[in-house]
Amino acid sequence: MPDNVLILAGGQGKRMKVKSPKVLCEVLGIPMLQWVINSCEKSGLSNICVVKGYEAEQIDAFLGDKYVTALQKERLGTGHAVMQAAEFLNSNKDGNTLVLCGDAPFVDTETITSALAFHNGNKNSVTVVTSEISNPTGYGRIIRNNNGISAIVEQKDANSEQLLVNEVNSGCFWFKTQDLIDILFDIKSDNSQGEYYLTDCITLLIEKGKRADAFKSLNPVISLGANDRKGLLHLNDIAREAVIDVHLENGVEFTCLDGVVISPEVSIGVGTKIQQGVTLRGKTVIGENCNIGPNCIIENTKIGNNVVLNNVQSYDAVLENNISIGPFVQLRPNTHILDGVKIGDFVEIKNSTIGKNTAVAHLTYVGDSDVGANVNFGCGAVTANHNGECKFRTEICDNAFIGCNTNLVAPVKIGKSAYTAAGSTITKDVPDGALAIERGTVSIKDGFATNRLAARNEKFSKLK
Ligand code: UD1
Ligand code: CA
Questions:
Q1: Pocket of ligand 1 (CB under 6 A)
Q2: Cα–Cα distance between 141 and 143 in angstroms, integer?
Q3: Which domain holds residue 316?
Q4: Shared domain check, 210 and 233
């Protein structure tokens, strides 16, 4: 069995003033707990147990049944949280256990693996990962001696000399699992907060003649956790800048970073320009030489090369190459836009394919439709895909011309090179090459308006 991971996620986050578990608060749209799990899995650690407590069912719903969990019924401290996972530790006690805080999302693979090598190489019983930070307020201070470390002292228990130490506990520990089990229930709550501190393991293990040491991480943000809203915003700022830095190095152009938020898993090709107000979420992939923005939200969308998006929202869609979309367009899930398409202002497309070089210029809704190549939509065309109960598809074949204000009542098929006349409501299939027209007969009443005006003028002149 591989090494264990224990992620502490029981806290409420009182200082965060949130009604869900603090670890579900998001950094760049990803819950902090997920950041921590991702780093473990990238390090090859998959034997993960999450300690849940406050609103535990929300943690269950988030994790699904992929991970083992342990319930901490009352929050009595980080040491108490680990005690609740004793069964998990006992089930695999030959190797090491990595303990992490679910509210410190920037723990990284390099640190996890280097700290383990240090831990094993020095035959440590416990290795705490530390970092030096300019403002250590609130963190546990690392007290070093000639033989590793002697203690971790919490802010509230530290004397004035200890408060000057700026090497802090990141909350990430490697333990020899059996050694942790041996002293775990010796942790007492006789401190200023009346809590069972996991950090007390250091002195307990040393008292048993074991080795405790600290591994100082090169990652300057590893210790940063979010205890309140300000801290969470700070983590978002740090992550946002780090993600943008990577894209800058990769040859992505940013004109102004105002309102630009890019999730960590997004990929962007060389020469693409990202303008202000652009949010890129999920597993969005953008090709080369695109121009995205201003003001776009793009989520889980795959975009090819030479695509221009101006004021567009796109969710779970695929856009091929040489496409221009916007302004004010929404692409909803399962939209597939092929090469050379032009989509203009105030257009919504949902669960539809738009064929090569088709133009949807303005004020149009295309839902549940299969649209061919070189189709032209006039202004205000609507596919009526929903009859109040069921949804149906519309098929529009290559080279068709959909006149302005056409309603296409699905299920309906417009044949190849067929036309629909402006203002028509089409309820029957239109054969290839035909014109469908559905309008009331126009009746012209000569002189009606002139006569009416004359009558009104006469009435007013009598009143005077
Ligand atoms: C803890 C450390 C501190 C370290 C800091 C790093 C202790 C005593 N202190 O302080 O040395 O510098 O993390 O971020 O360990 N949790 C539970 N159950 C509990 C209490 C906490 O599961 O009863 C979880 C929380 O959800 C959180 C993590 O443990 O994910 C850390 O708890 P928190 O209260 O934030 O500890 P800190 O005060 O930040
Ligand atoms: Ca914390």
A1: 8-11, 22-23, 51, 53, 72, 75-78, 80-81, 101-104, 139-140, 152, 154, 168-171, 197-199, 223, 225, 227
A2: 6
A3: 229-436
A4: no
- 451 is a domain residue: no
Ligand 1 atom at shortest distance from the alpha carbon of 77: 23
More confident residue, 238 or 19: 238
pLDDT single digits (tens) 21-60: 999 999 999 999 999 999 999 999 999 999 999 999 999 9
- Per residue in 56-102, pLDDT (tens digit) is 999 999 999 999 999 999 999 999 999 999 999 999 999 999 999 99
Phi–psi pair at 314, nearest 5 degrees: -140, 130
Q: 369: domain CATH number?
A: 2.160.10.10
Residue 462 resides in a domain = no
The tens digit of pLDDT for each residue in 319-346 reads 999 999 999 999 999 999 999 999 999 9
SS3 198: helix
Identify whether residues 202 and 251 lie together within a single domain.
no
* pTM, to two decimals: 0.90
Same domain assignment for residues 282 and 171: no
Q: Which domain-ending residue is among 164, 188, 216?
A: 216
Which two three-digit tokens encode residue 421? Answer: 């006349």
- 197: tokens are 């501190």
Q: What is the C-alpha separation between 263 and 281, in angstroms, rounded? A: 5
341 and 282 share one domain: yes
User: Is 97:4 a contact under the CB 8 Å cutoff?
Assistant: yes
